[in-house]
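anyone seen this seq b4? input:
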Amino acid sequence: MRVHIATDHAGMELCSHLITVLSAKGYQMVDHGPASYDAEDDYPAFCIKAASAVVADQAAGVDALGIVLGGSGNGEQIAANKVKGVRAALAWNLDTAKLAREHNNANLVAVGGRQHTVQEATELIEAFLAEPFSNAERHERRIGQIATYETTGEVAG
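predicted toks r here
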C-alpha cells in the first residue's frame, strides 16, 4: 500500500519515525514535506499535496491512504478535507482510528504530534492503516450523500 504523509514543524520528529517504521513494514511511503524544519512553516500546502496525491492514486486504482500530522492534527485535517474526494479523520484513540476506516472509509488520518507519545501515535496510525472499510450499506449510503454534496451542493435526507 502507498501511504502519502505530510506534516508541519510540530510533527517532523513523528513523521520521520513513521516513515522509518512503516517502510520497514512494507508500506510505500511518499513524503510531501516539509523537507526541513521551519518553526514558521505553513501546513496547508503540505497537507493538500498529500491529500491530492491520495485521491489521484485511488482514482488510478492504486491502493493508497494518507497521514497528516501537526501539533493537534486539527488544522491539518481541515486542510486535507478541502480536497475533493478526501475523507480525513482526526484520530485521538484506537477506536476513532479504526472507526474512521470501518464506518467512514476515511482515506487520510490526522494525528496531533503534541497530543500523543510517538508510540501512541504510531499505534493509532497502524490501526488506521490496517482497518478495512466494512462496506455496510448504511455507511456506503452516508458516504455517498457526502460525495453528492461535494459535487452538487445538494444534500439528501
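Residues 2-152 form a domain with the Ribose 5-phosphate Isomerase B; Chain: A, fold (CATH 3.40.1400.10). The beta strands are 2-6, 28-31, 64-70, 88-90, 108-112. kinda curious what u guys think
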